[in-house]
């Protein structure tokens, strides 16, 4: 029945498809007929049909991968390759870095186990940003020239991979007023401190 169906389909294609497309149709039909014949032979004999040797990769054939270990070239190597940092600038060292280094390499400190069973690996790191600006503004009625500074400082106490305490302060500004030195403007020239030791960020 399958051969009859494919024969009818081939006849319809010969009638409906233009002559220039017949070459591709014939190639496709021959492949289908080979597959159909193989299936019929399998049904008649009860044995699996022989497969084309050229279409199946021999499982015993070894790959010649870049590692020379007989594995596929896409396989990851078992050789440990260090981080390639040639040409990259050195990482700035934090002002405070205690315990396991942030983004460091090498063996991690194993830490200690609490009575509850949790394992802590305490590490303390200080980081943040310090921005400074010298600015001058002429609004049409006066010219204001000043130096301003702002610091965002954070302390990160890492206890484990999922537990940490973060504290953040902004010591050089208070309620939107920045520590500054005024050179000229509506304010008297001089230094104005807006120091603030209050905690701005706190979470665990």
Name some characteristics of this structure.
two-stranded antiparallel sheet; 10 strands; elongated; alpha+beta; 2 helices; eight-stranded antiparallel sheet
Describe the fold and architecture.
This protein is an alpha+beta fold and 204 residues long. The protein contains two helices and ten strands. Strand 5 and strand 6 form a beta hairpin. The protein is elongated. The N terminus is likely disordered.
Write the layout of secondary structure elements.
Blueprint: H1 2-16, H2 22-45, E1 96-98, E2 112-113, E3 119-120, E4 123-138, E5 143-158, E6 164-169, E7 173-174, E8 177-184, E9 190-192, E10 199-203
Antiparallel strand pairs: 1-4, 2-3, 4-5, 5-6, 5-8, 6-10, 7-8, 8-9
Helix pairs in contact: 1-2
Task: Describe what is shown at a glance.
The protein is built from 2 helices and 10 strands. It is of the alpha+beta class.
Order of helices and strands: HHEEEEEEEEEE
Q: What's the alpha carbon Rg, rounded to whole Å?
A: 38 Å
Helix count, per DSSP? 2
Mean pLDDT: 74
Pairing-aware structural class of the strands and helices?
alpha+beta
The fraction of residues assigned to DSSP E strands is 25-35%
Poorly predicted sequence stretches spanning 5 or more consecutive residues: 1-5, 19-26, 28-32, 53-57
Please give the largest β-sheet: 8 strands, antiparallel
Percent of residues in helices: 10-25%
Q: Judging from the principal axes of the Cα atoms, what is the shape?
A: elongated
Total number of beta strands: 10
Distance between the termini: 73 Å
């Amino acid at each position: 029945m399958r051969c009859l169906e494919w024969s009818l389909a081939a006849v319809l294609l010969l009638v409906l498809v233009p002559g220039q497309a017949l070459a591709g149709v014939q190639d496709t039909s021959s492949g289908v007929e080979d597959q159909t014949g193989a299936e019929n032979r399998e049904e008649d004999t009860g044995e699996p049909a022989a497969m084309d040797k050229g279409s199946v990769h021999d499982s015993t054939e070894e790959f010649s991968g870049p590692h020379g270990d007989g594995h596929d070239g896409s396989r990851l190597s078992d050789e440990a390759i260090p981080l390639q940092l040639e040409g990259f600038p050195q990482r700035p060292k934090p002002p405070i870095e205690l315990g396991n280094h942030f983004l460091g390499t090498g063996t991690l400190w194993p830490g200690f186990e609490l009575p509850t069973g949790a394992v802590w690996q305490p590490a303390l790191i200080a980081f943040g940003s310090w921005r400074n600006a010298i600015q001058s503004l002429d609004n049409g009625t006066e010219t204001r020239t000043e130096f301003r500074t702002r610091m965002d400082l954070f302390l990160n106490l890492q206890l484990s991979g999922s537990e940490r305490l973060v504290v953040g302060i902004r010591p050089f500004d208070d309620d939107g007023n920045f520590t500054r030195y005024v050179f000229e403007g509506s304010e008297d020239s001089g230094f104005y401190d807006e120091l603030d030791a209050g905690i701005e960020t706190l979470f665990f």
